[in-house]
Amino acid sequence: MKQDLSYKRKTYEKQSMNFDSLRDNPMEQFRDWFLQAEESDGVDEANAMSIATVDENGFPRTRVVLLKRYTDEGFIFYTNYNSQKGKALENNPNICLSFFWPFLERQIIIKGIAEKTSDNNSDGYFETRPRSSQLGAWISAQSSVIEEHQDLAAEELELEKKYEGKEIPRPAHWGGYLVRPLEIEFWQGRPSRLHDRVRYVLQEDYDWKKERLAP
Predict the structure, then answer these.
(1) Single pTM value for the model
(2) 75-105: buried (b, 16+ CB within 10 Å) or exposed (e) per residue?
(3) Measured on CA atoms in the order 35, 47, 50, 4, is the torsion positive or negative?
(4) pLDDT per position as a tens digit, 19-75
(5) How many CA atoms, within 13 angstroms, populate the side-chain half-sphere of residue 83?
(6) Is 128 helix (H, G, I), strand (E, B) or coil?
(7) Residue 11, exposed/middle/buried by CB under 10 A (0-12, 13-18, 19+)?
(8) Among candidates 122, 126, 153, 119, which has minimal Cα distance to 139?
(9) In 3-state terms, what secondary structure has residue 80?
(10) Which of these is catalytic: 31, 63, 131, 193?
């Protein structure tokens, strides 16, 4: 099977990015762009992000998850600690996050270190989840091989009966990660592939160095 995709291209010309007008703190700049994406009619799930981890054999793996919170410290998402990404992060906490908003012709790339959030943080978010999602966190042995005809719906129904009229506790194997950024790059598409790229690099004094990159 062969298919030529060389003809597929798009001209980016909606906006530009002025280096001097960007904030000195990349978390503040992220907030500005994220709010614009959230308020845009052309962006669906602005908090959807790709996360890349590296497994024990040195192979990278990327998947899409949802950002659930961001603070001055970094970016928080939640998952099963026994999943492939959880096991990868246990072995190697280096991680890359990526947001891509085609409608705005923008992307943000974040390089950082992931650490588990506190139990209180994970408990607090778990309590806000729909009961069906809480049940799913117990039922799904995420990333593991299961029987072809295993009836997960039946298991969910059985667990739902068990906790009928009761609060569903958070499983110990499920919780949050905080990604503390080391580098954050903002990318704005421009005509002629002369894209605007600005990278913030964390310094030893916890200040940020802002620099422009070639497209």
Answers:
(1) 0.90
(2) bbbbbbbebbbbbbbeeebebbbbbebeebb
(3) negative
(4) 999 999 999 999 999 999 999 999 999 999 999 999 999 999 999 999 999 999 999
(5) 18
(6) helix
(7) exposed
(8) 153
(9) strand
(10) 193
Of 86, 101, 136, 95, which is closest to residue 114 (Cα–Cα)?
Answer: 95
Amino acid at 135: L
Instruction: State the number of CA atoms in the 13 A half-sphere of 198 facing the CB.
Output: 19
Which range among 2-6, 57-61, 146-150, 163-167 has the greatest average pLDDT?
A: 57-61
Which helix H or strand E contains 65, and what residues bound it?
strand 60-66
User: What is the token pair recorded at 107?
Assistant: 């992307």
Distance CA 116, CA 78 (A): 9
- Kindly give, in sequence order, each residue whose CB lies less than 8 Å from that of residue 47, ignoring residues fewer than 6 positions away: 34, 38, 66, 67, 68
193: annotated active-site residue:
yes
Give the whole-angstrom CA distance, residue 129 versus residue 144: 23
